[in-house]
């Protein structure tokens, strides 16, 4: 780890969706800076924040940021914090490279934990087409050929899998990886 710290990405769930739980990105950047993080940058309005931390791992930072966020904004948002190396693996392990160029058809669900075999089996029963998915560790890759908005299966994932998570389209995944890489410090 460098003197400047290690790069992380925080993925928020349930903010700025449908006009509810509004958090301005400028305020979110200031919030991270006030917590002592550096090189803070946000990506789109759905709560993606890249930052550097001098100490702490993803699990510790998740707890710290969630608690401070709830105190400041008065509501809970599930936050998934992952480091640069994790994002590099997410991209390199993509099981659907042939569709990666169409960012609207490929999504990555960042899961709180790796699902059990029984949880995956329940989800597999629900995947009756045209979508396909693969789970690698704490990531669910979803290829939705008709797009996420038209996918009935995508709506079933949280209820069926029962593992908390948050989804990002492939364009966002690649942008966050690039931002975290520019921040440096794997």
TrEMBL record:
SUPFAM superfamilies referenced in this protein's UniProt entry, alphabetically: SP0830-like (SSF160379)
Any single Pfam family the record assigns to this protein: DUF1697
PANTHER family cross-referenced by the UniProt entry: BLL4334 PROTEIN, DUF1697 DOMAIN-CONTAINING PROTEIN
Official protein name in the record: Uncharacterized protein (DUF1697 family)
């Amino acid at each position: 780890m460098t003197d400047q710290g290690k790069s992380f990405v925080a993925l928020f769930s349930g903010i700025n969706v449908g006009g509810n739980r509004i958090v301005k990105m400028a305020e979110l950047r200031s919030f991270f800076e006030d917590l002592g993080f550096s090189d803070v940058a946000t990506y789109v309005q759905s709560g993606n924040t890249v930052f550097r931390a001098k100490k702490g791992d993803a699990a510790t930072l998740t707890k710290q940021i969630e608690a401070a966020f709830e105190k400041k904004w008065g509501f809970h948002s599930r936050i998934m914090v992952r480091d640069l190396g994790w994002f590099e693996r997410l991209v390199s392990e993509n099981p659907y490279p042939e569709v990666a160029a169409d960012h609207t058809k490929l999504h990555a669900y960042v899961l709180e934990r790796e699902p059990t075999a029984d949880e995956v089996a329940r989800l597999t029963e629900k995947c009756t087409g045209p979508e396909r998915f693969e789970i690698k560790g704490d990531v669910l890759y979803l290829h939705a050929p008709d797009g996420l908005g038209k996918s009935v299966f995508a709506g079933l994932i949280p209820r069926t899998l029962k593992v908390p998570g948050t989804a990002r389209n492939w364009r966002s995944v690649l942008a966050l990886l690039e931002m975290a890489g520019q921040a440096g410090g794997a």
